[in-house]
Amino acid sequence: MSSSPPRIFVTGVSGYVGGHMMGRLLEMHPEWHVVVLVRDQAQKAIVLGRWPQLEAVIGNLDNSALMIKEGSKADAVLQIASADHISGVVSLIQGLNQRQPTPGYLIHIGGTGILHDTPNGFGQPSDRIYHDTTGLAEITSFPVEGHLHRDVDMAIVEAQKRLNVPTAILSPPLVHGVGKGPIKTRSIQIPAMAEAILKRGKGFQILEGRNIWDHVHVDDLSDAFILLVEEALKPNGGNAQWGDEGYYFAEAGELKWGEVSEAISKIMTDEGAIKAAEVDKVSVAEAVAMHPWAPLIWGGNARSRSDRLHKLGWKPQGPSLYESLPSMINEEVKTLGTQSSRLTFDK
Predict the structure, then answer these.
(1) What is the pLDDT of residues 147-205, one digit of tens each?
(2) In 3-state terms, what secondary structure has residue 324?
(3) pTM to 2 decimal places
């Protein structure tokens, strides 16, 4: 790339993953020129108050002209604002295509919700594990129907081929840990379950609760994004794969949802937040009454293996899921009823 400092454009800095990742990125690479997208002047003041070395532009992913402009100036774009915004990510790719003398790189956040699987019914485990190496052909040929984020993934692959822009999709599983960003510090699945348990006064699992998801600490996920940017800034994209092969999982372990609910309930009982640690079996309909996306986020399976990141040297070193639970639960107790559990794919 050029001799001037690399220019990195980042969306999602006001969010949980993007805000946490930004702190680690600036510690590891203070030499980079980082430009961030913020929604309004209020967000700009908060973000620059934390990190005055950043450059901030006001707008959102719907602003196609702005996305094209910023993409055209960036060596790499970290698109962490949404896994489900087709026009925004395509506009960024259009902009990256205009970068001179060669196109810049896009790294986009996806999610293992695309793997949602209930072959034996909700609350039951699946043996199906998807590797981002040997399973890539199947993952990238899923139909849109029944596979969350797949429409966006398809749009990225089509645009990168048409415009000759190197892209990577990084799909995390459940993300845990209290974020350290300046605005949003809350993940989705664990906090939403903890909030529901607090409200009903007792733990729950969907049916048998034996269904399996992967997890990763927000530190380790942040480092995975930074690793891909580091590779993008090397000649020819370094050792990373891009385009058709540019698909990455980021798992660091597995969980069974019934066991997670038991652990949450025990912590809450020990702290006096609820009265009993027993976990109820609930139907899918009862779970949906607690959260509209309950079947997906708590009831099915999504099992992945991050072969590609490991080949690049990524080694998860953050706290375990169960080590993260006390601080995450404490946040829910403090903020009960004031946090939004809306997901990016809510329409």
Answers:
(1) 989 999 999 999 999 999 999 999 999 999 999 999 999 999 999 999 999 999 999 99
(2) helix
(3) 0.95
Please name the helix (run of DSSP H) or strand (run of DSSP E) that holds residue 69, with its range, or none: helix 64-73
Between the two ends of the chain, the Cα-to-Cα distance in Å is 39
Q: Dig out the tokens for 243 from the structure.
A: 């385009």
- What's the Cα-to-Cα distance from 279 to each of 261, 264, 282, rounded to whole Å? 7, 10, 9
Residue range 285-337, pLDDT digits in tens: 999 999 999 999 999 999 999 999 999 999 999 999 999 999 999 999 998 86
342/347 Cα distance (integer angstroms): 10
**Peptide bond between residue 101 and the one before it cis (omega within 30 degrees of 0):** yes
* Gap between the Cα atoms of 246 and 136, Å rounded: 10
Q: Do 40 and 53 form a contact (C-beta atoms < 8 A)?
A: no
Distances (CA, A) of 88 to 70, 79, 232: 12, 9, 21
Tokens of 229: 């940017």
